[in-house]
């Protein structure tokens, strides 16, 4: 089955062609980093406009690279939420028009389900597994029992982990997106130069909180400017901040495995592209006798291949009708 995936939930316009759920024939991504960089975060109106400018080109490139014809597509899968409505609507309306013109079925996919299943683009993971979804909008822990069977174990009560990377990068005037820039700075810094707080919340809680950490970084930066504390370089602050985030994420993943008696871990979402996080969880998993899985970085950050993959598995369980296609709507805070 050939699936065309379309993703435009935030600031990446992407289209992919997937053969039988796992063979990626193409995965084209157009980011908007230059547009948003000067604002230190995504400006929704600009994001919507950029999607409009690039979506046709991105879909054409995905079809050309896959070396199949548009008419050979069996199914179109598109992100319907959660995300920015003005961004989601560009992908959704384009997908609806294509489905109508080609008379092909269209399936709506929850963006988070795409992240949860991205690992299946590369390998098969046995169920159940614990999934840590860490992105710019979400920091969630799930027990994944099967395709379409997801139980939320914990989530952030305030900022998402990726959002805190972006905000700290903005405070340090590094640019956007902050995650890769902080990671690069952190490589040169001393994570022990300053100990930032870790929010573990109530004993045994699988929820997260990153807003206190962000405030603490802000305070340290202003104290540094007034000379109240010994000199800390941007690299030291980046390393200390990144270590605090990784400590909490790692500890909660293993707590979830312990509580749920599950020995497989999948880490996914944009922050899962962070090599220090990957290394830490992989090392600890090995020492605990657990298995850990990480999609390659291209499939961690937003991409349409994961949407095509989730759409493929969803379509196996659900016969599609034209009514489903027409009624599809974008939902900013769609739940999984
Ligand atoms: O999954 P994603 O592409 O979009 C959302 O669904 O939000 O995640 C984007 C987030 C951004 O906050 C970005 O700073 C973060 O993922 N990110 C990283 C890294 N690469 C991207 N965070 C830490 N380290 C990275 N290498
Ligand atoms: Zn995402």
Can you describe this structure in just a few lines?
With 336 residues, the chain is of the alpha/beta class.
Name the beta content range.
Answer: 15-25%
Question: N-to-C terminal Cα separation, in Å?
Answer: 25 Å
Please bin the fraction of helical residues.
40-55%
What is the N-to-C succession of helices and strands?
A: EEEHHEHEHEEEHHHHEHEHHH
Q: What structural category arises from helix and sheet content?
A: alpha/beta
Count of strand segments: 10
Mean pLDDT: 96
Characterization of the model:
Helix content is 46%, strand content 19%. With 336 residues, the chain is of the alpha/beta class. The strands form two sheets. A five-stranded mixed β-sheet has the order 3-2-1-4-5, sandwiched between helices. A five-stranded mixed β-sheet has the order 8-7-6-9-10, sandwiched between helices. Helix 5 runs parallel beside helix 7 (211-226), helix 6 crosses helix 8 and helix 8 (234-260) packs parallel to helix 9 (275-288). It is globular and about 65 Å long. 5'-O-[(R)-(carboxyoxy)(hydroxy)phosphoryl]adenosine binds at residues 10, 135-137, 162-163, 165-166, 177-180, 183, 269-271, 273-274, 301-302.
């Amino acid at each position: 089955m050939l699936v065309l995936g379309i993703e435009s939930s935030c600031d990446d316009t992407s289209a992919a062609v997937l053969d039988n759920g796992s063979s990626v024939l193409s995965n084209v991504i157009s980011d908007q980093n230059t547009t948003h960089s000067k604002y230190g975060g995504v400006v929704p109106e600009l994001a919507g406009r950029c999607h409009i400018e690039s979506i046709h080109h991105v879909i054409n490139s995905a079809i050309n690279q896959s070396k199949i014809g548009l008419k050979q597509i069996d199914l179109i899968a598109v992100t319907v939420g959660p995300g920015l409505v003005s961004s989601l609507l560009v992908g959704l309306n384009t997908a609806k028009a294509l489905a109508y013109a080609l008379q092909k079925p269209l399936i709506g996919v929850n963006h988070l389900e795409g992240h949860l299943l991205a690992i299946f683009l590369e390998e098969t993971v046995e169920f159940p597994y614990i999934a840590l979804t860490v992105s710019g909008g979400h920091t969630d822990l799930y027990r994944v029992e099967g395709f379409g069977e997801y139980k939320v174990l914990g989530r952030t009560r305030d900022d998402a982990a990726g959002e805190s990377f972006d905000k700290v990068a903005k405070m340090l005037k590094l640019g956007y997106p902050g995650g890769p820039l902080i990671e690069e700075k952190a490589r040169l810094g001393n994570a022990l130069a300053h100990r930032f707080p870790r929010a573990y919340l109530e004993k045994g809680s699988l929820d997260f909180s990153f807003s206190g950490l962000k405030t603490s970084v802000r305070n340290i930066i202003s104290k540094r400017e007034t000379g109240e504390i010994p000199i800390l370089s941007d690299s030291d602050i980046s390393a200390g901040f990144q270590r605090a985030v990784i400590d909490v994420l790692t500890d909660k993943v293993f707590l979830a495995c312990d509580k749920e008696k599950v020995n497989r871990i999948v880490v996914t979402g944009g922050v899962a592209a962070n090599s220090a996080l990957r290394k830490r969880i992989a090392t600890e998993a090995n020492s605990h006798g657990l298995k850990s899985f990480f999609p390659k970085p291209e499939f961690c950050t937003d991409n349409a291949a994961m949407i095509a993959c989730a759409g493929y598995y969803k379509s196996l369980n659900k016969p599609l009708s034209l009514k489903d296609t027409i009624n599809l709507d974008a939902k900013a805070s769609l739940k999984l």
